[in-house]
Design goal:
- This protein is mostly helical.
- It has one domain: Orthogonal Bundle (Hypothetical protein af1432).
- Helix 7 runs parallel beside helix 9 and helix 13 packs across helix 14.
Amino acid sequence: MLVWLVLGLGAIGLMAFYLLRARAANALSAPAQSFAAPATPAQKHSGDPAFETEVITEVHAATFRLAFGVRRITYRIFDDHAQVIAKVVASLPQAMRDEKQLPRRPAMLPKLFRAMNGSDSTREELARLILQDPVLAGNVLKRANSAYYRQNNAPVESIDRAIVVLGFEGLRAPVAISVMQPVFKLPQGFFDKFAPMTWEQAQRSAAAAEQYARVSKAGDPFTANLLGLLGGLGRIVMFRLALDCYRQSGNLMPRAEVFVQLINDQARVLTRAIAATWDMSDNFLSAIDAQLECRTPLDMAPLAKALYYGELAGALALLEKHTNAARDASLSTLEQQGLDVDTRVALMQAARDVD
């Protein structure tokens, strides 16, 4: 009898050991806790579109598979890779307090904006500034020759003429794109498609956000454009922080799942921190806050709506280009999120025209 009792107690102990071990593994594979207070989704009325749906979740997952060059993403993360996530999350509060850890506002951006906004500026002065950067000059000419701005069949071939066609308002977006592009560059070595895909998605999102502001006549189109670009920058910074942590972890090979989880959980928080260090307006910051709070898009302020719909249209256009996703499916997704037919067509066209 004593022998059976001892054997029974041993079996119970062994079961308890494996149960505790399984629970520990599950805890490591759970999403990393954000250092910020968790956002409470805003109250939404019955029938209002949710901030995130199953379709939208799959759209974003597909953009990650494309950017990281993987067929599937396994979201259960264990052992040393879970420790990488924990270390990156723990380092974020300090990184966000240290402006050296965040990208600086491109020096040329305020100089060009002053030239475009100043009453004493001349076309000649602005043309000289633009010609200092060949990429910027090319983007300005490309925009002046786009279907939206082109006034006749004669191509626009000079910067001076492009300034006349675009006006200072139309110049702001190509200026922002050109001076922001270098900030999106990453060193080669791991997931080399991530930076160019993220840059392309950011441009598409910016174009769609700008178009939403223009079509809805609510909010500054340029501000909406810059918001769309900054979302991509938050993902780039998160990628860099995670890659730095991997480099400090010896021979541990980076896994796409780790980057995806960190970007999903923390990239918007980083985007807001970058915007704050760049001294962006309260309206600009509030538009990002609306995304962090996961509000239904119908309850968002106009600039926040531009960002929400712009990012969704940008992701959809990226998948259309690189995975042959159906255009009808893109329009249907935007319809389900509350956009009328004219607006969704206009947004998708703007996002596609980035090509």
